[in-house]
Amino acid sequence: MILYFKVANYKSISEPVILNFNASSIEQYEDSNVIYANDSRLLKSILLYGHNASGKSKILNAIDYFKWFINNSATESQAGDEIEVEPFKLSELYKGKPSLFEMGFIIGKTKYRYGFEADTKKIHKEWLLENKIKKEYPVFLRINQEFDIDFKRFENSDSLSKRTRENALFLSVAAQWNVKKAQIIDKWFNKIFNIHGIDDRNYRKVTIDLLNNDKYSNLVNKFIQRADLGISNIDFFEIPFTFEEIKESFPENMREMARETFESESKAIISIHSRFNGKNEFSGLEPFVFDRAESDGTKKYFNIIGILITAILEGRIVIIDEFDARLHSLLSKAIIKLFNSNQIKSKAQLLVASHDTALLDNEMLRKDQIYFVEKDFKGASKVTTLAEFKSREKDNLFNESYLGGKYGGIPFINDLESLFNNVKEK
């Protein structure tokens, strides 16, 4: 589980931005939407709000990059390759300074704090600390190519500092060389689901795998049915022969086109709809090829169902940018309620960026679950939580106050009609 994430000097972020999953002591909410893990009370979900170009996506991208670099820095680059960090460029104060990434997280019964500072040339600092029985111990500390390693806490890491390039993370190298603690942390990061809300098809396979599993196929169908999409059942079929077996039936000059068509249609998701007669009586079921018949919103929902189910069952973290894209507000709310549920005993966490103000529901979310992102006069992204704003009204309507500009994080848009006042028709 995530305790917090901190990033600084990265893309639109200058000074440190922190997303804190530690629940605030707000009497109004008591233990709603909170998970107890070790001695921590952690939020089950966080929503980021802000106008276009405020930096919401950059914050989520920072987590994605942090995760990717941990999983790949030892294997995806060579000596001399540039590190793909992009510092804040709108102030001379940050020129030549490294970007900073740090996350606190819990694996099993141990709290960890891991982070690094890097520019495009090298890792300047890297650290891993663990917390047991309320005391924090360094596992390893690194400044440039100087290492201080507790070999009792980081067993089998002897001599690995000499194998660590200046543009690679020591943690990643240790995981590659079978250091157990490093492998556990590397695997934990690899299991974080990071989805872009308008590019979700890459995760469809997770849903299809569950659909093809007798243990979970019914659960996938219930997710579809509960969403009121007009689909009574859904299944996955694969044509039981290859193109090579039938290519001779096509003229030679058409085979390449036929191959592309076959490969795109040889595996099909079939959605079943109810059919009615002229008296509006149920008369049977009608199958459709899912990708041809269903809406983009239905496709997106299907694509992420597998992620949602897997996260809840395995206690994993889901991060979604453009969360509300192509999803109805009520369906988006249902997903947030799923992660916030007190009925389901899961340690899954959800972090999303959204523009949908209908989700700013004081009956569904705590104040410390809502973050507002906006840029200052230098173009740097800043975050504040709703919990930082004082409100005398216990039942304050979050969405109305947000749209009224009370919390910031909204665009100030002048009318667009007047732009055409002096434009002549063609």
Tell me the strand order in the biggest sheet.
2-1-6-7-8-9-10
Cα-to-Cα separation, first versus last residue: 59 Å
Taking the sheet with the most strands, its summary is:
7 strands, antiparallel
CATH class of the largest domain: Alpha Beta
Q: What value does the average pLDDT take? A: 86
List the keywords.
426 residues; alpha+beta; Rossmann fold; six-stranded mixed β-sheet; 27% strand; globular
Write up what this structure looks like.
With 426 residues, the protein is of the alpha+beta class. The chain has 2 domains: 2-192 and 316-403, 3-Layer(aba) Sandwich (Rossmann fold); 213-295, no CATH class. The protein contains 11 helices and 18 strands. It has helices at residues 56-72, 170-176, 180-190, 204-211, 217-226, 243-246, 255-265, 290-293, 296-314, 329-340, 398-403, and strands at residues 2-8, 17-20, 34-37, 40-43, 45-49, 99-107, 110-118, 123-132, 135-143, 146-149, 193-196, 233-238, 267-276, 282-289, 317-321, 349-354, 370-375, 381-385. The strands form 4 sheets. A 7-stranded antiparallel β-sheet has the order 2-1-6-7-8-9-10, covered by helices on one side. Strand 17 (370-375) and strand 18 form a beta hairpin. Helix 2 packs across helix 3 and helix 4 packs across helix 9 (296-314). It is globular, with a radius of gyration of 25 Å. The chain starts with a strand and ends in a 23-residue tail after the last helix.
Topology:
Elements: E1 2-8, E2 17-20, E3 34-37, E4 40-43, E5 45-49, H1 56-72, E6 99-107, E7 110-118, E8 123-132, E9 135-143, E10 146-149, H2 170-176, H3 180-190, E11 193-196, H4 204-211, H5 217-226, E12 233-238, H6 243-246, H7 255-265, E13 267-276, E14 282-289, H8 290-293, H9 296-314, E15 317-321, H10 329-340, E16 349-354, E17 370-375, E18 381-385, H11 398-403
Parallel strand pairs: 5-16, 5-17, 11-15, 15-16
Antiparallel strand pairs: 1-2, 1-6, 3-4, 6-7, 7-8, 8-9, 9-10, 12-13, 13-14, 17-18
Helix pairs in contact: 1-3, 2-3, 4-9, 5-9
